[in-house]
Design brief:
The protein contains six helices and six strands; from the N terminus they run ββαββααβαααβ. The chain is α+β, with helices and mostly antiparallel strands. It has two domains: 113 residues, Alpha-Beta Plaits, CATH 3.30.70; 63 residues, no CATH class.
């Protein structure tokens, strides 16, 4: 059976700046080829984890009670350019060639910034109180640090300007630095008892 592969992912055609990128991928595999597919994908993921900028991958296997369900892969890079370099590399092409022959359909979706701190496609999300607590703790620590720094610099300005400077420092740090790392560090706690807790976490 010939594979119907998605067109070149949009992140490879983007002319935007170089933000962190999360790729959400759903792959339907030929019936009876699941074990072979998973073994080959494990080799591909292992190689990806050694690439510069790789931030981890999550594999969600199909529900055995839902025949024809897709394998879901969520993987992240700290820069779009590094993701592009991986997808265009000879080593990835070599490892993906035997996988491609087993694929029925392959769908991509990509996200940047704050969209995928906690949620994974097709599985349960963490309780809101956990994500709220984690987000609040990160913001609190950063706000305290930044306020002390501004005080030491004797920064004086009207409240709207001080708020602009404070949020301009804290929000990007939380969104692009702390949240992705804390999400990986606390993955087990965040998803404990949810469908995502059964996902295989690859670092």
């Amino acid at each position: 059976m010939s594979a119907s592969i998605a067109a070149e992912p949009s992140f490879l055609r983007s002319g935007e700046d170089d933000p962190p990128v999360t790729v959400i991928r759903e792959i339907h595999v030929q019936p009876g080829k699941e074990a072979e597919f998973e073994a080959l994908m494990a080799q591909l993921i292992a190689e990806a984890t050694r690439r510069l900028g790789h931030l981890g991958a999550t594999v969600v296997r199909p529900d055995p009670l839902r025949p024809g369900d897709a394998h879901r892969f969520v993987y992240k890079f700290d820069r779009r350019s590094r993701l592009e370099a991986w997808h265009r590399s000879r080593e990835r092409a070599r490892l993906f060639a035997p996988i491609e022959a087993l694929i029925v359909s392959d769908g991509f979706d990509t996200h940047t910034g704050l969209e995928t701190w906690f949620e994974l496609p097709g599985v349960s999300t963490p309780p809101r109180w956990k994500t709220t607590l984690m987000t609040w703790s990160m913001i609190y620590v950063l706000v305290v640090i930044v306020l002390y720094v501004l005080q030491s610099l004797r920064f004086e300005a009207p409240i709207p300007i001080r708020a602009l400077v404070l949020t301009g420092i804290v929000v990007p740090l939380v969104g692009f630095v702390l949240a992705p790392r804390m999400g990986r560090l606390l993955h087990g706690w965040l998803y404990k008892g949810s469908g995502a807790a059964k996902a295989k976490k690859v670092r």
